[in-house]
Design goal:
Helix content is 24%, strand content 32%. It contains seven helices and 14 strands. Its EC number is 3.6.1.-. Keywords: Cytoplasm, Hydrolase, Mitochondrion, Nucleus, Signal.
Length: 309
């Protein structure tokens, strides 16, 4: 059985623009490590999990009927070769090929700004292909100045009820959580800061603000590197440095902001080691790649296992 995570890695690591090409209309070698030729010169690129990726170029001049015949013949060949799935990438300007593909059993997997991706399961039993990403990740920065015991807060301009909250926004693809927090804080308030730790994670499903999908909202503790506010007039109605104890006590805030303010107050009084999830970058199993791991600080002797029986 193909593991979900393997297919997920295949999608995330390989199926990106330029990574897999359809060599339609060209002749060349085929085999386990090269393009898989389908009848009618429709070819795809094999992947390590038994599937094949077909990426149409903007120059294809087939009509819908001709494309359907070529795709059907290619599917038959890929079945005979034991391929278990087809990923079909269609540019937006070639959308006339979507209906012929759907008539052969292809389903939408996801769409991007300039293309759509369809899939066809060729293996035995129900499809084991992973669904596309169904979460959005929002990040906020709790910028706390320990010397003044003040915290940076904003009120959104476009909210029906203006409540104090931490500045933040959606994380960009490929952007680390801490970098998102620092960027969003600067864009909204003009305050420069640096990442210190992760404080909390909220998980919420069927969120209207996330197109009905699941939403992750992460709050980071940041240390200020500047103090003069120059907030974005388009996004924020108000922005100020507020006493942390006042934010923890006020009713004019969101429940999550109130809870994190109290968490910060506890950390300030008892030690941030009691609340911080620190970050460490570690090498991934994939050569040349790294990942960020967030957890409570681990004593050095446990990191190296020195003097531990």
């Amino acid at each position: 059985m193909l593991p979900w995570r393997s297919w997920g890695f295949w999608r995330a690591g390989l199926a990106r623009p330029g990574a897999l090409g359809l060599l339609a209309g060209r002749r060349g070698a085929s085999g386990a490590s090269g393009p898989l030729a389908g009848a009618g010169e429709l070819r795809g690129e094999p992947d390590r999990y038994g599937g094949v990726s077909v990426r149409l170029g903007p120059q294809e001049r087939w009509d819908a009927a001709a494309f359907q015949r070529r795709l059907q013949a290619a599917i038959q060949q890929w079945r005979s070769e034991g391929r278990v799935a087809v990923w079909l990438h269609i540019p937006i300007l070639q959308s006339r090929f979507i209906a012929p593909a759907a008539s052969l059993g292809f389903c939408f997997h996801h769409a991007e700004s300039d293309s759509s991706t369809l899939t066809l399961w060729l293996g035995e039993g129900p499809s084991r292909l992973p669904g596309y990403a169904t979460h959005q990740v929002g990040v906020a920065g709790a910028v706390f100045d320990e010397s003044t015991r003040k915290i940076l807060v904003v009120q959104d301009r476009n909210k029906l009820k203006n409540m104090w909250k931490f500045p933040g926004g959606l994380s960009e693809p490929g952007e680390d959580i801490g970098d998102t927090a620092v960027r969003e804080v600067f864009e909204e308030t003009g305050i420069k800061s640096e990442f210190k730790s992760l404080l909390s994670i909220r998980q919420q499903h069927t969120n209207p603000g996330a197109f009905g999908k699941s939403d992750m909202y992460i709050i980071c503790r940041l240390k200020p590197r500047s103090f003069t506010i120059n907030f974005c007039q388009h996004e924020c109605l108000r922005c100020e440095w507020m006493e942390l104890i006042d934010l923890a006590r006020t009713e004019n805030t969101t429940p999550i902001t109130s809870r994190v303010a109290r968490l910060l107050l506890y950390g300030y009084r008892e030690g941030f080691d009691k609340i911080d999830l620190s970050m460490e970058e570690l090498p991934a199993v994939y050569t040349g790649l790294f990942y960020k791991l967030y957890h409570k600080e681990l004593p050095e002797n446990y990191k190296v296992m020195t003097g531990i029986d």
